[in-house]
Write a structure and sequence with these properties.
The protein has about 350 residues and is α/β, with parallel strands linked by helices. It has a single domain, classed as Aldolase class I (TIM Barrel, Alpha-Beta Barrel). It is about 40% helix and about 15% strand. The chain is built from twelve helices and twelve strands. The chain has an eight-stranded parallel barrel, surrounded by seven helices. Strands 6-7 form a two-stranded antiparallel sheet. Helix 8 packs across helix 9. About 45% of the residues are buried. The model has no long low-confidence stretch (mean pLDDT about 95).
């Protein structure tokens, strides 16, 4: 009897009794049963702040993105607030560069003034700041350079000074993107030692030496003047190394981990999430943005549907948060879908 029941049950579970398409018949059913959700609160919007006044310059390789001076920030703040984007990620473009990147930790630096402006107008907006020297140094590398070598330990105090200056200006979280060993511990120790225990660290824990960064380097004016970044950013072929980088950053005090780039590294996102079950961000980088924009402009893709598919895939892979240049557009599209 047991065997006959099992055989009958098996037959009942196959076509024509089992029809997977039944639950795809109506949009409302598909929406009700959707396993992975995407909302504006999952999005972090990058913003490029440029020293000067009256600046709102389009970035040629990233259509829809701009260099913005602090005096013109207010309407942008209002847009992000209205869109209910989860957070802003600030990058700075100083007017002067030197060998150490001293503009990075100035009290009246462009990012520091930007933080204060945002917090004054919209204190509820979460402000995250990129912590790295590449946009502030003449050589364009992410650390101190001596005789052609990027020096790890000599860089850590400078990154800490930069993070402290952002915390003092009112940043909610700092995001070290330099990939120097030990920088999370150094920054966490300095933040705590100076009373900024509530300022979080979103760590670029898994950052690959990727070819997808090209447009960003124009946007941040941070291309290296010699060599490349392969001695400190990760080899795109490595996964076990990614897990080790993430583990070390958590042990050193990271609050949120990040994988960068995103789309070509879905497997890495999933493995990091499975391994640690901690808050995880994915950075949908400039090259991923630019190639979709370019294809959409030529009529080869429908931008909206492709972008929503990409960001949903990142969420499905395990990303709790997504850094994306599409934040405002996606927030608008999501609102339209809900109406």
């Amino acid at each position: 009897m047991g065997r006959l029941y099992a055989q009958e049950r098996k037959r009942a579970m196959t076509f024509p009794h089992q029809r997977m398409r039944r639950l795809r018949t109506h949009e409302s059913l598909r929406r009700m049963l959707r396993e992975t959700t995407l909302s504006s609160r999952h999005l972090i919007a990058p913003l490029f702040l440029k020293e000067g006044e009256g600046i709102e310059e389009p970035i040629s390789s990233m259509p829809g993105q701009y260099h913005i001076s602090v005096d013109l920030l207010d309407p942008w703040i209002d847009r992000f607030l209205e869109a209910q984007v989860g957070a802003l990620l600030l990058f700075g473009l100083p007017s002067r560069k030197d060998s150490q990147g001293k503009e990075a930790w100035k009290k009246e630096g462009v990012v520091q003034r930007g933080i204060r402006r945002i917090k004054k107008r919209a204190p509820e907006l979460v402000v995250i700041t990129d912590v790295c020297l590449c946009a502030y140094t003449r050589h364009g590398h992410c650390g101190v350079v001596r005789k052609g070598r990027i020096l790890n330990d000599e860089t850590l105090p400078l990154l800490s000074k930069m993070a402290i200056s952002h915390a003092q200006a009112g940043a909610d979280m700092v995001a070290p993107s330099d990939m120097m060993d030990g920088r999370i511990h150094a920054i966490r120790s300095q933040l705590d030692g100076q009373g900024h225990t509530d300022v979080g660290i979103l760590s670029y824990a898994v950052k690959y030496a990727s070819s997808f960064y090209g447009p960003f380097r124009e946007a941040a004016q941070s291309s290296p003047s010699f060599g490349d970044r392969k001695t400190y950013q990760m080899d795109p072929a490595n996964l076990r190394e990614a897990l080790e980088e993430a583990r070390l950053d958590l042990e050193e005090g990271a609050d949120i981990l990040m994988v960068k780039p995103a789309l070509a590294y879905l497997d890495v996102i999933r493995e990091v999430k499975n391994a640690f079950q901690r808050p995880l961000a994915a950075y949908c980088v400039s090259g991923e943005y630019a190639m979709v924009k370019a294809a959409a402009e030529k009529g080869w893709m429908d931008e909206r549907s492709v972008v929503m598919e990409i960001l949903t895939a990142l969420r499905r892979a395990g990303a709790d948060l997504i850094v994306t240049y599409w934040s405002l557009e996606v927030a608008k599209w999501l609102k339209q879908e809900s109406n």
